[in-house]
Write a structure and sequence with these properties.
The protein is mainly alpha-helical and about 450 residues long. Helices cover about 85% and strands about 0% of the residues. The chain starts with a helix and ends with a helix.
């Protein structure tokens, strides 16, 4: 990142900046969600409906892996954005080096522990004798390559924070295109089944990581890989993990919640209901990832201007991102309610699975239009380093509202109670987020007025 790119975060019109940073991130996150969908589509059409259910059982594992990746990647990218805003380039450089080391250590540790206890973990996640072989075949390959996946996601977050949103976008698009090419080759002619999809995913991410490392090896860039920055520094690691605690907690909670969703669906309806949730979740995931791209584009702008104490620009980016986020999730709501059938048929030709998916999708996304602003508000607090508030908002939807609903509603409503737990918790979480934002908005405005008064004097 050159000095001009750094300074424009504090000078360029906020609307243009949000477009500049968000569009590449949105394209990248949409591409990322599509390549998750590609796996599911080829597995569902090429292996069968029970394989879809097996794949759905891997969601908690994916969420858990993402928790560690987000904890390091988001924490590091926020630290870098704030340090660049403060013009502390030396510390920003050290954050980059510590990010590489942390990703390597945590990625390897996660793989080793997970592989040692794979069968009992999958049974705990809701596997049955029918679905375990599919889930295990997929996860063994994914876990063997997890350190590369972990590093890939972490480096992409740092790319965005260091003023290279386009490169981050190109990296993700590369993995999608390559995965889409390799999936049918490995699954059909090579007859590798669900394992083929896993190999395609890991190979795509490994090659993308090579390109990322090449970008960060350029000595002409303000932030680049060099000797002396990889040794873990207590203050830097503490800061990364403190800020990353919110997305880490959110993903861990998502893991726990998905386990209870899978177990509830298995108990009240059977293996195919787990597969229906897998399909519904993939459709929902596209719009969640688009919104995540928006919030990732917001992050460096909010982080820089918070560090530079330009509070009017800070509030402007929050307002624009909230409007855009609401539009995105409203489109998702309309898709789920108006065309759930065609969405389900992308993944399977099994009519029973299609019917279960249509019902689940309509209920699951009944309040989805509220999710956009809740995500923006949560990530806004994260972007300015308010880790505790962000973590509370992240946890409130998952643990305070959704988890109790999953325990209570199915006892009265059966399988529909599992599905209805999600929109009800979304609604309550949105109310809490708006109240929290309103409270802190007054504080920000007071701070801004004091700042303006001091400038006049």
């Amino acid at each position: 990142m050159n000095n001009k790119a750094t300074l424009e975060l504090g000078n360029k019109p906020v609307g243009k900046l949000l477009m500049q940073y968000s569009l590449p991130a949105i394209i990248a996150m949409t591409a990322s969600s599509l390549y998750n969908m590609v796996d599911s589509i080829f597995i569902g059409q090429g292996v069968g409906p029970m394989a879809i259910s097996g794949l759905a059982l891997t969601f908690p594992f994916m969420n858990l892996g993402a928790a560690f990746g987000a904890g390091v990647g988001v924490g590091a990218s926020t630290c870098i954005s704030v340090k660049l805003g403060q013009k502390d380039y030396n510390t920003a450089q050290r954050v980059l080096g510590n990010t590489v080391t942390l990703n390597l250590i945590i990625g390897l540790a996660f793989s080793i522990v997970s592989l040692l206890f794979l069968d009992p973990i999958l049974y705990f996640f809701g596997a049955s004798e029918q679905t375990l072989p599919y889930a295990k075949d997929y996860m063994v390959i994914v876990l063997l390559g997890n350190v590369f996946s972990h590093m890939y996601f972490g480096m992409n977050a740092v790319l965005r924070a260091s003023g290279k949103p386009r490169q981050a976008m190109y990296t993700t698009i590369f993995t999608v295109v390559l995965n889409t090419i390799l999936d049918p080759i490995f699954i059909y002619p090579l007859n590798m089944g669900i394992q083929g999809a896993a190999y395609a995913t890991i190979l795509s991410q490994m090659l993308a990581l090579v390109w990322q490392m090449r970008i960060f090896s350029n000595k002409n860039e303000l932030l680049h890989l060099k000797r002396g920055i990889y040794g873990l520094k207590k203050a830097i690691v503490k800061n990364i993990l403190a800020i990353g605690l919110s997305p880490f907690s959110m993903n861990v909670c998502a893991c726990i919640v998905v386990i209870f969703i899978n177990k509830g669906l298995l108990m009240y309806s059977g293996d195919l209901a787990v597969g229906a949730y897998g399909i519904a979740n993939k459709v929902c995931f596209i719009f969640v990832m688009v919104n995540m791209g928006l919030t990732q584009g917001m992050q460096p702008i909010a982080g820089y201007n918070y560090g530079a104490q330009k509070l009017d620009r800070l509030m402007r980016v929050l307002s624009l991102a909230t409007i855009a986020g609401t539009v995105i999730t409203t489109i998702g709501f309309l898709v789920a309610e108006l065309i759930p059938g065609p969405c389900a048929r992308l993944f399977t030709t099994d009519q029973q699975l299609i019917d279960l998916s249509v019902n689940g999708l309509r209920i699951m996304m009944a309040a989805f239009m509220l999710v956009g602003s809740q995500m923006v508000i949560t990530n806004f607090f994260q972007s300015i380093g308010k880790a505790k508030i962000s973590m509370f908002l992240s946890l409130s939807r998952q643990m305070l509202f959704l988890f109790p609903m999953l325990l209570i509603l199915p006892t009265f409503m059966g399988v529909d109670g599992v599905w209805w737990s999600m929109p009800i918790s979304d609604t309550i979480a949105e109310i809490v987020a708006v109240v929290m934002m309103y409270t802190y908005m007054k504080k920000f405005k007071k701070q801004h007025n004091l700042s303006m008064a001091n400038e006049k004097h």
